[in-house]
Amino acid sequence: MEARDDDESPATPPSSSPPSAPTSAPTSAPTSGPTSTTTSSGETPSGSSETAATNGTPAEPSAVAAPADSPETTRRVDTAEAARGDAAQPRHPGVDPRGTAAAAPGSAAGPLPVERTPLSGRFTTPGRGAHAPQGPNGPATYDLSSAQLLRPSKRPPQTGWRRALFVGSGGLVNPGESAGDAARRELIARVNQPLHGCYKIAMLSLKGGVGKTTMTTTLGSTFASLRGDRVIAVDANPDRGTLSQKIPLETTATVRHLLRDANRVRRYSDVRAYTSQGPSRLEVLASEQDPAVSEAFSEVDYRRTVTLLEHFYNVVLTDCGTGLMHSAMKGVLDVADSLLIVSSASIDGARSASATLDWLDAHGYRDLVSRSVAVINYARRSSGNVDLDRVSDHFAARCRAVVRLPFDPHLEEGAEIELDKLASRTRAALLELAATVADDFGRAGSRVRRPMIPR
């Protein structure tokens, strides 16, 4: 009876048999009779436990169950999860993928997670993670500006043989911009510096024929062509000013009509009906052409005009007459942010400009003189024997800066002014003048205004 039971008993799993001495040759399990297998539900058939009881071995789960990390346990878990559809990843011997919850009974903690170190390759860059540098307020931040992220490249040239080479090669050969192009770009950046509020510039000179109207048009056109805001020039000459003749005339309205309809002006389009605009986007508000009517243009009228325009324009240029004692001139000087003192390249022109500064100093406008810019306009082709360097030194000692405007045949015509028809050196001088004036934009509105004294 005992022998029959031994012949029919199934093979005992390796983990449940007691340790024995190794044998020289392995023994094969019998092929006939029931064997210990795992069902699809992960349970061991009852025949195994009965056979173990028949052999006299206690059927204790702790003695029969395999260790948690053994291949047998892994095989049983895989089989059970495959039956439920839970198996997703291959199992690795020695690592319990279920974490601490599947740890063997009696163990203190489950296996530790495996630390994965990122590998560097063609498309992968290892990160530093917790080892990143720390700043005073936490992890250090990195500059993601365009200057840091974009590779430096040469600016395409704008003039000269460099431009011809760049265009001729289809952009393949870029020799970079010249020193002149770089200087021009810096001047344009100065012209376009921020402006808060309205900046008011007045053109002054005691002598006529020195080019005040020409300077008003060319400087205003330079600002309007380079800046994105609105620029307007006002003709405040009481003796039939010619400012409106420097650009194409679009309307016959004058400053007198604007003041008459001031109560109906609500938006920019309302003001635009009284101005003319040139190709450079400079707008001009003409003066009254009848000398008998222009005499009535007083300080009050000018103040009302500027108060209305500063709501719609960022730069207001005023072309003044030769007389410094008429009523409108006091309003011009009281509201101006800076002055342009225009002088011709002659002795009498320099003396008249210097006398203008003397008059301003004597009448309490010393602060305005210190913020003014002197312009030496070459109205003729040659200045003769006049030492213009000494003339420049004279005005530089009293004004903020001195700029020379070379002679230009297009300006000598006295007709409508177009910037594209000016010589290159004339445009360069105007750009430098505009940049010099714009350097004072940061002080717009900082000058103490004089209140109007009722008469």
UniProtKB/TrEMBL annotation:
<feature type="compositionally biased region" description="Pro residues">
    <location>
        <begin position="11"/>
        <end position="21"/>
    </location>
</feature>
<feature type="compositionally biased region" description="Low complexity">
    <location>
        <begin position="97"/>
        <end position="111"/>
    </location>
</feature>
<feature type="compositionally biased region" description="Basic and acidic residues">
    <location>
        <begin position="72"/>
        <end position="84"/>
    </location>
</feature>
<feature type="domain" description="AAA">
    <location>
        <begin position="200"/>
        <end position="345"/>
    </location>
</feature>
<protein>
    <submittedName>
        <fullName>MinD/ParA family protein</fullName>
    </submittedName>
</protein>
<dbReference type="InterPro" id="IPR050625">
    <property type="entry name" value="ParA/MinD_ATPase"/>
</dbReference>
<dbReference type="InterPro" id="IPR025669">
    <property type="entry name" value="AAA_dom"/>
</dbReference>
<dbReference type="Pfam" id="PF13614">
    <property type="entry name" value="AAA_31"/>
</dbReference>
<feature type="compositionally biased region" description="Low complexity">
    <location>
        <begin position="22"/>
        <end position="52"/>
    </location>
</feature>
<feature type="region of interest" description="Disordered">
    <location>
        <begin position="1"/>
        <end position="144"/>
    </location>
</feature>
<dbReference type="InterPro" id="IPR027417">
    <property type="entry name" value="P-loop_NTPase"/>
</dbReference>
